[in-house]
Amino acid sequence: MTTITPNVNPTPAPVIDGAKVERFVHQVIGDMGAAMSAVLVHIGDRLGLYRALGDGIPVTSTELAAKTGLNERYLREWLHNQAAGGWVTYQPEDGTFTLPAEHALLLADDSSPTFMAGGFDFVAAAWADEDILTEAFRTGNGIGWHQHDDRLFTGTERFFRPGYQASLTSSWLPALDGLVARLDTGISVADVGCGYGAATIQLGQTYPHSTFVGYDYHDASVAAARGRAAAAGVDGNVTFEVARAKEFGGST
Question: Which fold has domain 19-109?
């Protein structure tokens, strides 16, 4: 016969604060809406919709469809989503949508130092990586950079390149005493963890008397960097090699 001993100190049921539940409901719905809208932001970036709106001229969905060659029905829904989120403005009197100039700086011009649309590649990559991230939680194993979705690599380059272009050679390097003079004269520089080579290539363009070697263990990134260096015409003083941070050659 089994004897069940009653729990003499039961855990009291929590007192539910209805107002707190309601506030959290609104937060959850807001977060869900932001997550869904992030997909549409990424799509708009991929399809060049922000660039098409970047001139600040108000357009209807029909006019945007004619301008981009895309389907009007889907563009109509996309524009309404963007207006609801405050990314574009809507003029009900004539049914037009406008991308404000201040927003265009972040979304429409990838040469702008404030361009941020590339960051939504990170979001897409995170969802694509959901399975390997879930497995890592189970096993505790690490995840190699090379295992991630390709949009993490392209997004990293797109997100950080505008900052390099705006500040790397104009303010960051001049802040280091004597470095610019040495680069102008000619020295050898290693860029460890170069990715797609945006900073390395910019250095090669700015300081033609110096040589630059970008190192990354991710062979696909190195291949992309080599192609970009050739296209930029700096492959004479900029090279890229596959190597880990502890394995590259050279000396300090």
Answer: Arc Repressor Mutant, subunit A (1.10.10)
